[in-house]
Amino acid sequence: MFRTGQPVNYEEVYDGLKVRLARADYRHAMLHLGAQDAGENVAVEFLNRTCLIGPDGVRAVDGGKPDFTVRIVLAYYILHGGQGEPAGRWAAYRDFKDGAFFHGAFSGMVENNIAEHFSGRMSELEEAAAALGGRPLEAGLGGDFCCRFPALPRVPLALVFYDGDEDFPASARILFDAGAPQFLDMECLAVLGLILSDQLTGRQV
């Protein structure tokens, strides 16, 4: 599901998900996924933006059309059927079962993108993070800047950023709540990190 230069393929994936959304159990989403009742739809907060998911698909309350990656991840979040509470501890993507398959792409396209974009520009990173609902995180994770994002109601993300200096380049780590695989498969979790990277660096609305 990583960017391939052929977005029409992803629109076809999304069209297939819309068929499933037309017959989805939205009661489960309200009981177990932190979704809110919105008539025929449910409302979900996604990186400081309210989105509606329902029989007609995914759209934003503000009237904008979310990027296809956002629409796909939100559809899967509702359809995956996860339940439970966040684990309350952080894990790297590679630490998850089957995470190794996407780890190389995840590190390069997500973490390295953030590190390169914000090297020497930490104040801009702080502003970009705040605009997405990010809040400073004191969890003993290290870094020059550490932030928690309420990406999805049951799937928070954390960013640990080390700015570069004359000896070491900037680096970034994206961490997931350890219970995240209950709510999204590994490919969707990778794409969730990609969305955060894109939105932080201004690539995606």
- Name the structural class: alpha+beta
**Which CATH architecture of the largest domain would you pick?**
2-Layer Sandwich
In N-to-C order, the SSE pattern is HHEEEEHEHHEEEEH
Distance between the termini: 18 Å
Number of helices: 6
- Give the proportion of residues in helices: 25-40%
Uncertain runs are none
The oligomeric state is single chain
The value of Rg in angstroms is 17 Å
Number of strands: 9
Largest sheet: 5 strands, antiparallel
Number of domains: 2
**Topology-level CATH name of the largest domain:** TATA-Binding Protein
CATH class of the largest domain: Alpha Beta
Give the topology, please:
Elements: H1 7-21, H2 26-32, E1 36-38, E2 41-46, E3 49-54, E4 57-60, H3 68-79, E5 90-92, H4 100-118, H5 122-131, E6 135-136, E7 145-152, E8 155-162, E9 171-177, H6 186-200
Antiparallel strand pairs: 1-2, 2-3, 3-4, 5-9, 6-7, 7-8, 8-9
Helix pairs in contact: 1-3, 3-6, 4-6
In short:
The chain has 205 residues and is of the alpha+beta class. The protein contains six helices and nine strands; from the N terminus they run H-H-E-E-E-E-H-E-H-H-E-E-E-E-H.
Give an overview in words.
With 205 residues, the chain is of the alpha+beta class. Helix content is 38%, strand content 23%. The protein contains 6 helices and 9 strands. It has helices at residues 7-21, 26-32, 68-79, 100-118, 122-131, 186-200, and strands at residues 36-38, 41-46, 49-54, 57-60, 90-92, 135-136, 145-152, 155-162, 171-177. The strands form 2 sheets. A 5-stranded antiparallel sheet has the order 5-9-8-7-6. The chain has a 4-stranded antiparallel sheet with strand order 1-2-3-4. A hairpin with a 2-residue loop joins strand 3 (49-54) and strand 4. Helix 1 (7-21) runs parallel beside helix 3. It is globular and about 55 Å long. It starts with 6 loop residues before the first helix and ends in a 5-residue tail after the last helix. The mean pLDDT is 92.
